[in-house]
Amino acid sequence: MQRTFNPANYCFAWTDDGWYEWDRKEAHKQALRVRNRGAKRLRAQGMTVSCFTHSGQLISRGGIGSGHPHIELVVNVYGLNAR
Predict the structure, then answer these.
(1) Rounded distance, CA 62 to CA 31, Å?
(2) CA–CA distance from 34 to each of 2, 23, 66 (Å)?
């Protein structure tokens, strides 16, 4: 099993004025915390878990058809492999 934890999915919200709010530092902390908790839980179930980080990933939000402007965020995506 492989899971990834994208900081762009944490602390991100579109605002009423058509832009966005995102607490980059807190989003990274939350994504890493959730990944680490998941790894700990899987290890407790007897699985072998390895954690990894993909640095500098370009993540897009909004764009054509979404009703929001197209923006790009550069994040570290955290992940785990378990077997």
Answers:
(1) 21
(2) 14, 16, 28
Distance of CA 32 to the CA centre of its chain: 8
Q: Whole-angstrom Cα distance, residue 56 to residue 75?
A: 5
Q: Could you tell me the pLDDT band of residue 10, with boundaries at 50, 70 and 90? A: very high
Sequence-separated (6 or more) residues with CB below 8 Å from residue 6: 31, 57, 59, 75, 77
pLDDT tens-digit readout, 49-76: 999 999 999 999 999 999 999 999 999 9
* Per-residue model confidence (pLDDT) at position 18: 84
Give the domain ranges of the chain: 2-82
Please say whether the dihedral angle defined by the alpha carbons of residues 23, 29, 32 and 34, taken in this order, is positive or negative: negative
